[in-house]
Amino acid sequence: MATIPEGELNLATLRPKGNLTLRLMFAGGWAVLSIMGIIFTLVGIGMTFFAWHSVTSEKRYEKEGMIAEGTVLRKDTYTTRSTSGTGRRRRTRRRTHYRVYYTFAAQDGSKHSGKDNLSHSTWSRLKKGSKLKIQYLPSDPAKNRPEAAKPGMMAWLVVLFPIGFGGAGLVMLIIPLRRAIKHAGLLSSGTLTKGAVDGKRQRTDITINNRHPYNIAYTFALADGEVHTGEELVMDRKMSDRLNVGDPIGVIYLPTNPDKNAIFRDKWMKHFQAG
After folding, report:
1. What mean pLDDT is predicted for residues 105-113?
2. What secondary structure letter does DSSP report for 5?
3. Structural domain tally of the chain?
4. What are 134-169's pLDDT values in tens digits?
5. Distance of alpha carbon 220 from its chain centroid, rounded?
6. What is the pLDDT averaged over residues 236-255?
7. I need a labelling partner for 98 at 20 to 30 A (CA). Which of 73, 159, 224, 254 fits?
8. Helices 160-189 and 30-64: crossing angle, nearest 10°?
9. For residue 230, is it within any domain?
10. How crowded is residue 177: how many other Cβ atoms within 10 Å of its Cβ?
11. Domain carrying residue 80
12. N-terminal to C-terminal alpha carbon distance within the chain
């Protein structure tokens, strides 16, 4: 719980350190959300390039692709593993892929070969020497695939994944960024005064590290005695656990706009230069 000052302290007279917004984004429980936001955003960017390549390739096949009769050389299977979750929720999933190897002759008579995965039903019907329709690009026959492996709409659905990941990442970043900008402004130009906890409400719609944070409601008085109220989502578990209705707290607010306020944390003082 923050130490309550005697009277008011104008924090604008202190000198905050540089990169204050970034410091606050990666402080306490908000660091988890910020880091996850960065990870999801980077994954989204990476998947965007993959989606662009997939869609571009599919459009090229649709525009200039030709069909040739190929011959199955052999077929096999292989297994991949993917892991999801952590701790007791960690799960490993095995997936079997059905692969076929083939050869075909392009329109110009040149011989080419390739391999690709097929559905189990299609793969199981094939055997060495079976005929298989192959789609290829006349300008580059090395780019080819079984017609049965054509992704169709799946190539376009790939676009949804980077949008989902990137969008989620941006949301995760925007939340702590907006909060950090607000607190940075308060620490740069705000006034610290006394306040008291009015209410405490658990946010069951938010889960971080298997715990729900709390919304803390509070009141505080300005220098002229006018009473104001505020409410804040407290991500710091230790702090929220200690706070109860009636407890004194420090509140920081902008003298020019008291509606912009927040609960003051002692640890914020490390963001000011000594002296």
Report:
1. 94
2. P
3. 1
4. 999 999 999 999 998 877 555 556 667 778 878 889
5. 36
6. 90
7. 159
8. 150
9. no
10. 19
11. 66-137
12. 24
Domain for residue 237, yes or no? no
CB-neighbour burial class of residue 253 (10 A; exposed 0-12, middle 13-18, buried 19+) = buried
The pLDDT tens digits of the residues spanning 12-70 come to 677 777 888 888 888 877 888 899 999 999 988 888 888 787 788 888 988 999 999 99
Asked whether residue 182 is domain-assigned, the answer is no
Q: Which two tokens stand for residue 151?
A: 């992704």
C-alpha to C-alpha distances, 186 to 144, 179, 207, nearest whole angstrom: 61, 11, 27
Encoding tokens for residue 25?
Answer: 């984004």
Q: How far apart are CA 229 and CA 85, in angstroms?
A: 41
Encoded tokens for 164: 């989902």
**CA dist., res. 30 & res. 240, Å (int):** 14
Tens of pLDDT, residues 200-216: 999 888 877 778 889 99
Q: DSSP letters of 204-227?
A: TT--BTTB--EEEEEEEE-TTS-E
Q: 104 to each of 77, 124, 137, 140, 239, how far by Cα in Å?
A: 21, 20, 13, 14, 69
pTM: 0.59
Q: Is 145 within a domain?
A: no
